[in-house]
Amino acid sequence: MQHLKTAITLATLALSATTALAAAPAGAMQGISKDEILLGSIQDLSGPIAGFGKQARLGMLLAVDEINEQGGINGRKLKIIVEDSAYDPKKAVLAAQKLVNQDKIFMMVGHIGTAQNMAAMPVQFEKNVINFFPITAAREMYEPFHKLKYSYAATYFDQMRNAVPKLVKEKSVKKVCTMYQDDDFGLEVLKGGEAGLKTLNMEFAEKTSYKRGATDFSSQVSKMQASGCDMVVLGTIIRETIGAIGTARKLGFNPVFLGSSASYTDLIHKLGGKAMDGLYATMTVQNPYQDEASQPIRFWASKYKTKFNEDPTVFSVYGYTIITSFATAAGRAGKNLNTDSFIKVMDSLTIEPDFFGGAVQSFSATKRLGSDASRLSQITDGKWKTVSDYFGSTAAAPAPVVAPAKK
Description:
Layout lengths: L1 H22 L12 E8 L6 H20 L7 E8 L4 H14 L4 E3 L4 H13 L3 E3 L16 E2 L5 H15 L5 E6 L2 H15 L7 E5 L7 H9 L4 E5 L3 H12 L5 E4 L6 H7 L7 E4 L11 H14 L5 H20 L5 H8 L3 E2 L9 E2 L12 E5 L4 E3 L21
Parallel strand pairs: 1-2, 1-3, 3-4, 4-5, 6-7, 6-8, 8-9, 9-10
Antiparallel strand pairs: 10-13, 11-12, 13-14
Helix pairs in contact: 2-11, 3-4, 5-6, 8-9, 11-12
């Protein structure tokens, strides 16, 4: 009798499984239905860079709304679910598991943070989910090669490798020092600077580091001042950039200061005040000030402010352009959008600059970084102003200013 019950149970299970398979449409793709594309993103919404995470999220939401207002992508509306990692790699793994296995997203877009992406990518790749344009300038976002990795941000290494010799020549600098954060980020800035100086047969005259979370930089600054450096390369983020430059000004030490895109934020001049004037930083898109000379940027900034009741920042732009770039590729993949068709489009895709003036992005079957180009901006009268064209092996002449196409 027990054997009969077991046989009936197994037969019932087999029939249920067959029915379920029959119900699923042929070629069904996770995260894509007849009328919707589901994306996922992981941001820091409650941790140390929650300000950046919130801004990136709002930029994404604005782009999603605009695309949906214009009919979506080949008739499908975009939907995005954003999870909080609190900038903790362990929480990023949990967030990725939820998005990939429970929500069943089609793609991960604009995930913020290097360690967080490194922790989450294996979860995604196991389910064939692409990691699209993470918000980090780390080389691991496209190296080693993986078909599911796509990165758009010129790395800290490339930024410094190109910017340091350029500024040394322009300013006739004789001695270069560096102060950097003692972690992977700071080391990338250091290595890029060293590679750039090597092209001029130069080396750093003084190298000094600090532990993450440090607030007193007087010993590091004094050491660089004693070395007689007339340029300082900063592997710093926000508080450390302000602290180092503020300390230097008090000591009467006024070299050329150069930071990476990690210090390219309006918080530097808002929090650091007049002392920050003169700081250079590498950047890839410009901060969207509401009184910007470019009318399209002013219009966009005003629209953002009206919708969210706060000023947009460069992280708002990152979020926005990541979604519009996804829409460009997904649109070209056509009605039969899936991971393979998306990759096929990306294998020969060139994304022209939008009105934010980013560098041209180009991808191939073997090239997963859109551009290694960056340019210089400088704080003048309490505001970032672009002061150079793009430099780097993928730099190209700026394209005409146009709004991003959304289909």
